[in-house]
Amino acid sequence: MKSELEKLKQEFEAVMETITDRAALEQAKNEFLGRKGRLKMLLEQVAKLAGEERKTIGQLANEVKEGLEAAYRYKEHALNEAHTSTQAEREWIDITEPGHAPEEGHLHLTSQAIEEITDIFSRVGFTSVRAPEIDWDYYVFESLNMPKDHPARDDWETFFVEAPEGKKGKMVLTPHTSNSQVRQMELVKPPIRMININRTYRRQIDITHIPMFHQFEGLMIDKGVAVIHLKGVLDYFARTFFGPDRRTRLRPHHFRFTEPSFEVDISCGVCGGDLSKNCRLCKSGWLELGGAGMVHPRVLEAGGLDPKEYSGFAFGWGVERTLMMREGIKIDDIRVLYKNDLRFVRQF
Ligand code: FA5
Prior knowledge:
binds adenosine-5'-[phenylalaninyl-phosphate], BirA Bifunctional Protein, domain 2, 2 domains, 11 helices, 7-stranded mixed beta sheet, 40% helix, alpha+beta, 348 residues, single chain, rod-shaped
């Protein structure tokens, strides 16, 4: 009995030495100290001894029991300590380390330009409106004095929607924002000062053309509006958006819905108007900003206004082209704007 108790003690101590995790400790506890464990079995035999033997072996058995329990507690404590220190190592935080700022997105360059253009015109009283991006032929062409055989009305320039024709003709993806002109005249009576910025679509793609682009359309109608007011607003915009170094010019032009009509140009921001640089973007030192002119009397009439009483000006420019002409932007291919290349987008 005595040697069995001592053997049990040695075995338990040997097992404790090899244990490195809680599961193994639990298993050893059940095997040696559990309700049906080996110590319990021996103690039951001790209880059956008689006289002096029972007394001495009983004392030894108690010592062995206390030894086993102490060894168990020691191991348990050691494992707990090890767990806490590895956890502490794992979850270690250097409170002096600088914080990591969450990555924030920003508006696309075109959206930034749209916000800025809207703001610039709002400062001189132009209200932001939104005409449909898919509209009837009537608002896009017919009411703008564009004859049925006008080149923009055929399939080569404009995307027509495969939908039944309505009273106002076919539905088209607007190739310009001028559809807002008669729509606005139908909505409000003069004085009108509106700016309509929207997506526009044309069947074109090259270094200066994309099939989906944005235009901003300005319209001012009142009594006594003249070319000088148009010139004043254009100059104000050019100075505010591009800065004092950029030059603008008006060229006579022809649009069906304005008379007289102009093409507004601005000196190129990539080559600065220096022809010797052989600029890939402008080729001539000037970039076309867009069209402008005095609203044609037939357009006023289509909008329910008497041309003898009211006059007005309108202009329609490309947002992408406008921002490309800006100082410091130096984009020499318009298509790069919509390539979804984050290396490009993140620069702005
Ligand atoms: C028009 O669209 C007229 N509605 C402008 C207008 C409005 C004239 C009001 C008079 C009064 P135009 O076709 O020239 O005009 O286009 C205007 C501008 O849109 C161009 O100067 C250019 O800046 C931009 N643009 C035209 N096509 C594209 C394209 N495919 N990609 C990018 N920008 C374009």
